[in-house]
Amino acid sequence: MSKNFELLQQAGWHQEYFDGLPSPPLTENRSTPVLPERLPIRNDPTSALIRKVFLDSRESRARMVMFCGAARGVGCTWTCANTAKALANSVAGRICVIDANFAVPSLHSYFSAQLSAGFSDALLESAPSQQFAVQFANTNLWFLPAGLRCKRVLAFSDNSLLESHFRELRSAFDYLLVDVAALPPGPLAKSIGRVVDGAVLVLESSGIAANALLQARKLFHRARVQLFGVVLNQRTPATVLDRLLK
Predict the structure, then answer these.
(1) C-alpha separations of 215 from 79, 130, 199, 245 in Å
(2) What residues have CB less than 8 Å from 155, skipping those under 6 apart?
(3) Alpha carbon 213 to chain centroid, angstroms
(4) Rounded to whole angstroms, what are the CA distances from 111 to 77, 94, 205?
(5) Does residue 192 carry a pLDDT above 70?
């Protein structure tokens, strides 16, 4: 049993543990569209996450999932972006990946060269959010950037409007993957938590503290957000995942 898994157990985690997702290469060109030909679900860690969260027929399938980092800089945005691309390779339905991290919007760097009008603009203009979504590389994947008025949205008080926009997006797409700010959750993240099916927590594999994991677990519990799993970002794959998925 790995040390990471032992720490997760000490913190009371019983959800799926998706170990071995690699961090992005230091020389990665984020603006280059990379979406290979649709392939069947494989047994790598990213595919395991997709299968367990979105495609497992033994449970109710999730359609709207938020990705949240235990802290800034743990690879949550990269995980959300690449999970969306891998899901697009695996299903025929319409997918939208949404940047709802208005404090530090960065998801656009994995899909386009610069930040453009998007979710924040839709909220402030009371315009349909889906009209700001951009199709990625002529595929079944769309991207909704955080937009150009993120600072104004951070002071947004109409949470019912935010939730209404997410319900609208849910009716327009088959799957929604939402990148949100790192823990602890602010008012906007809590509002998003009320409308999603559940969440995936992203941590960095080095320097995990059981107390920090326990605190994260309590935050999700208090927000009444179902936690689908834990992703440990690291550069070399681990073997514990295979044991957990048996």
Answers:
(1) 22, 35, 16, 26
(2) none
(3) 18
(4) 12, 16, 26
(5) yes
DSSP 11: T
Helix (H, G, I), strand (E, B) or coil at 66: strand
Quick one: angle between helices 210-222 and 3-10, nearest 10? 50
* Distance separating alpha carbons of residues 141 and 89, to the nearest angstrom: 9
CATH architecture for segment(s) 3-23+40-244 = 3-Layer(aba) Sandwich (3.40)
Mean pLDDT, the chain, as a whole number?
A: 77
pLDDT band of 67, cuts 50, 70, 90: very high
Place of tokens 């295979």: 242
Q: Do the strands 175-179 and 227-233 form a parallel or antiparallel pair, or are they unpaired?
A: unpaired
Helix (H, G, I), strand (E, B) or coil at 68: strand
Q: Domain map of the chain by residue range?
A: 3-23+40-244
Give residue-wise pLDDT tens across range 85-139: 999 998 999 999 999 999 999 999 998 768 899 999 999 998 999 999 999 988 9
∠45-46-51 over CA atoms, to 5°?
A: 95
Q: CA 124, 225, 185, 162: dihedral to nearest 10 degrees?
A: 10
pLDDT for 130-180, tens place per residue?
A: 999 999 988 999 999 999 999 999 887 677 888 899 999 999 999 999 999
